[in-house]
Amino acid sequence: MVTRRRVESWEVSDEFWLRVEPLIPVRERSTDKAYVRKAGAGRPPKPARQVFEAVMYVLRTGCQWKALPKERFGSASAVHKRFLEWEAAGVFEALWKAGLAEYDQMEGIAWRWQSIDGAMYKAPLAQEAVGRNPTDRGKKGGSKRHLLVDGRGVPLSLVVTGANAHDVTQLDVVLQAIMVKRKTPSTRRSKHLCADAGYRGRPALRIIEGHGYIPHVVDRSKEADAKRRDPTRKARRWVVEVCHSWLNRFRKLLVRYEKLERSFVALNHIAAAIIAFRKVKLATNIIYG
Predict the structure, then answer these.
(1) How high is the pLDDT of residue 20?
(2) 3-state SS record for the chain
(3) How many domains does the chain have?
């Protein structure tokens, strides 16, 4: 009887690495003999796959960078340095775009019904994109993730701010930050945006309509009443709340300990990419971390 080794959530499968590797800057990508190190240049760089797996380990377990197992990943500072270099090169944003492109090709992005919402979380060490949390007696150290998703809950846009930034103030920014452009449909179809009462008001409605959406801004209680009156009515806004929950399953995102905004956003981009890849039905045998 053949027993399969349990695959850890942070391990990078060969199939997933095939999608990540082309995005790594060329000078760092290879572990082959083509890489020639200058004399006296110090230790050779770690293999890119090992570094990416270390990033996945941090993202999935929520551990501090300095707590990375040295016997498996080597120097934690070297890993973090490469992580920041890749972020500056746009690797993780490109990975999210690649995930959305594959998802769109295989499944088709569910553009017709989109949902938007923000979610707050503690950020005790953050130095950027942080503010007083209005739901926690105004304590310092709170951030907020503003999220736009398609009809299946796949993230299309993500913005991080301080917890004191009201959802409606970030509406235009989030709608402008969609990672992929929608292809012109063969037939004219409406696109709808579902939001809760936090997006009420004429200025918000003008922004929503200005981006070509039909607004559906409904109070939670009214939404529940409508469902009770008509059980066949399909709820649509909940998918954005589900996506926030999916992102929080990556333990490094549940409580923000990253000091820099760019670091935390990059980790969110990796998680968003994994969610997009997982939605590809034809690739359900592929493990994306």
Answers:
(1) 96
(2) CCCCCCCCCCCECHHHHHHHHHHCCHHHHCCCCCCCCCCCCCCCCCCHHHHHHHHHHHHHHCCCHHHCCHHHHCCHHHHHHHHHHHHHCCHHHHHHHHHHHHHHHHCCCCCCEEEEEEEEEECCCCCCCCEEECCCCCEEEEEEEEEEECCCCCEEEEEEEECCCCHHHHHHHHHHCCCCCCCCCCCCCCCEEEECHHHCCHHHHHHHHHCCCEEEECCHHHHHHHHHHCCCCCCCCHHHHHHHHHHHCCHHHHCCCCCCHHHHHHHHHHHHHHHHHHCCHHHCCCCEC
(3) 1
Each residue's pLDDT tens digit, 151-198: 999 999 999 999 999 999 999 999 999 999 887 766 667 899 999 998
In a domain, 230, yes or no: yes
pLDDT digits (tens, 9 = 90+) for 74-94: 999 999 999 999 999 999 999
Residue 277 lies inside a defined structural domain of this protein: no
Which has the minimum average pLDDT: 114-128, 134-148, 275-289? Answer: 275-289
Say if 180 falls within a structural domain. Answer: yes
CATH number of the structural domain spanning residue 204: 3.30.420
- Is 33 part of a structural domain of the chain? no
Query: Which residue range forms the structural domain that includes residue 123?
Result: 109-259
